Amino acid sequence: MSYLELRNVTKVFTGGMFRKTTTVAVDNFSLEVDVESPFIRALVGESGSGKTTIALMMLGFITPTRGEMLYKGRNFQKLPRKERQIFRREVQAIFQDPFGVYNPFYKVDHVFDVPIAKMHLARSTAERQALKEEVLRAVGLRPEETLGRYPHQLSGGQRQRITIARALLMRPKFIIADEPVSMVDASLRATILESLIRLNRELRIPILYITHDLTTAYHLCDNIIILYLGSIVESGNVEHVIKNPKHPYTQLLVGSIPWPDPSRRWGEGQVPIVVDREASGTDNQCKFAPRCPFVMPICRESRPPLFQLNNDRSVACYLYKDKPVAESSSYLF
Amino acid sequence: MNQSTNQSLSQRDHLLLKIEELKVFYHTDEGTVKAVDGINIGLAMGERLGLVGESGCGKSTVAMAIMGLIKPPGRIEGGKILLEDVDLTRLSEWEMRMFRLNRISLIPQGAMNSLNPVSRVKDQIIDGIKAHNQQLSESELNSRVYELLESVGLRRDVARMYPHELSGGMKQRVCVAIAISLHPQVIIADEPTSALDVVVQREVMETIGRLQQELNVSIILLGHDMGLMAQFVDRLAVMYAGKLAEIGSVKDLFAQPLHPYTQLLIASLPTLGKRGVFKGIPGLTPSLVNVPPGCLFHPRCPRAMDICSLEVPALKEVDGRQVACHLYNSEVLI
Questions:
Q1: DSSP B215-282
Q2: CB contact under 8 A, A267 and B202
Q3: Could you report the predicted ipTM of this complex, rounded to two decimals?
Q4: Other C-beta atoms within 10 Å of A142: how many?
Q5: CB A92 within 8 A of CB A33
């Protein structure tokens, strides 16, 4: 039994004041988190691919329209209040904006004091102080330089590491990091990514790293899932996927990375960009078909399942239709 | 003697935009923030120049100064911004308005927030054209809008849409269309793709690059993404704490960065090499209120010497580019 599981979840948002519009943000997506073998996985996709919706579902903030989330084998929606409280402590999130997390009127201690009080993590003031200092040191910050300060007195990198320390405070079993470095300067990213790696290696905490940046995913993660319009298009070992992408969309993504090397031409030898964007995603065609340079008639007729290329790679593309269909739609690490 | 403007005369003659000893300070309650402290940059016709630096290094202030948009408590304290021998810093607000969009235009950061949400795309494009050219008829304006939309790779029917109906990349293209609407000589692009995905980023940058060549405009690209710089610009200026650290051709700079800051910036970039190796730049950018004496980078510099904490290094010519670092003092004497 996995620790946390999304089983065939679909999330549909409806909106529009006069005309009802529906958006399928996540489409029949499955993912299992195993705490016994803690990996760092990347969930990569462009904006609108549903990656944040998946994070919010895994955090129990929004309920799937179809499918279910299982926490220790039990439906999350039916958990008693007390166990939800445990879930809230065990599953922690790190968000994108290191500025929005803080209330500018409070010292940064506040982000530690509230969860300590709510979750009854410390019995005395001394214990509380010791706890704060311990988690700050774990992310490479000096407590005397951070505690007692206001958020504006710290850099973006320091603030983001404090939010990691706050997550750590709860003794989490699983961490979801949603674009944790995208608003931080490149020179400070390293410290944050290093903190995440340390949590994973030393405390054996599995991490779901959500990003649109393939380069940090490549360096941080063990496995990668590429999302396109709410569905998995490719998944596997991060090194294999990025060095040898199989799905045309992954090829396009990898080819669009601006590598810091002026002698290497941007997008050279890569999949061309097809600008024609007809209405994408009727139910019975591949969602990428309107932008795919290799589109075949079959792509317009039915949606490709995930084909299993080898042990660690599955690709949802008819170019690989001679391969066996992946047994479970669930992505297991 | 001004060592920093030592470009050869023939080269200087062809420069379209010259920034000389520009100083922009913000006067706050806590003290004077020297956001831009004496920088010199030349931009040739049809050139793509990158201006790279961490947040707070002053790159956006440079852009705002060129656009004449420095607002109190900010003030241009000195220096010149010459566009074909007209000093932009001396223009009145009215004269500056004639220059904006017409001669110099800006592609702002975050296209999401720079368009008017309650106005159609067409009206927003026309707005700028009309402000400079009142004689155009309705049909002339319309055909100009369609022409502009097509040149940035958008369909004609985008004209009657509202910004919320467009994706981030499409909104950024609309901003590009507005920026080129009057054929300016200089376009300043302030992190034009920072909020976009890699594929959309490549599309937008390819569009900007193609238009740059077709219209032969000069572009100043601001940003902190060295990867994007490597792929887009001809010449790169590295800014640190309000000053230029190094400026040279992008190929030279990446092949052999001279300034320790440039070296660290390039080393901190992720490549497809060994996984799990993270290199950051230790320390923090200095507060620009109480600037340390000497080179502003010395507290973070792995190669700092005694002189670095005493004397500000001047920008000087080394190996065909300019660098402000005491490490290269001896080479100047030769």
A1: HT-EEEEEES-HHHHHHH-SEEEEEETTEEEEEEEHHHHHHS--SHHHHHHHHTS--SSSTT------
A2: yes
A3: 0.77
A4: 10
A5: no
Q: pLDDT digits over B194-223, tens only? A: 777 888 888 889 889 999 999 999 999 998
Containing B83, the helix (H) or strand (E) segment is strand B74-83
Q: Tokens in use for B157?
A: 């029917």
Probe site for chain A from B112, B221, B231 (most A CB atoms < 10 A): B231
* Chain B 123-162, residues with CB within 8 Å of chain A CB atoms: 153
Name every residue whose Cβ is closer than 8 Å to that of residue A42 and which is 6 or more positions away in sequence. Answer: A209, A210, A211, A217, A220, A221, A223, A224, A225, A238
Q: Which residues of A26-46 are buried (b: 16+ CB within 10 A; e: fewer)?
A: bbbbbbbbbeeebebbbbbbb
CA distance A50 to B32: 45
Residues A170/A111, Cβ–Cβ less than 8 Å: no
Using the Cα atoms of residue A122, residue A124, residue A128 and residue A134 in order, give the sign of their dihedral: negative
Q: Which of A38, A41, A32 is nearest to A201 (CA)?
A: A38
CB of B55 within 8 A of CB of B224? yes
Taking a C-beta distance cutoff of 8 angstroms, is the pair B224, A186 a contact?
A: yes
The reply to whether A219 touches chain B by the CB within 8 Å rule is yes
pLDDT digits (tens, 9 = 90+) for A70-91: 999 999 999 999 999 999 999 9
3-state secondary structure of B76: strand
Q: What is the sign of the dihedral through the CA atoms of A166, A168, A170 and A174? A: positive
C-beta atoms of A260 and B264 within 8 A: no
Could you tell me the domains of chain B?
46-60+90-333 (3.40.50.300)
Q: pTM for the complete prediction?
A: 0.83
The CA-atom distances, in angstroms, between B155 and each of A247, B193, B207, B315 are 28, 20, 14, 47
Closest CA to A159 of A171, A150, A148, A172: A150
- Which residue, among A295, A59, A78, A291, has the nearest Cα to B203 in the 3D structure? A291
Give residue A47's identity as a one-letter amino acid code. Answer: S
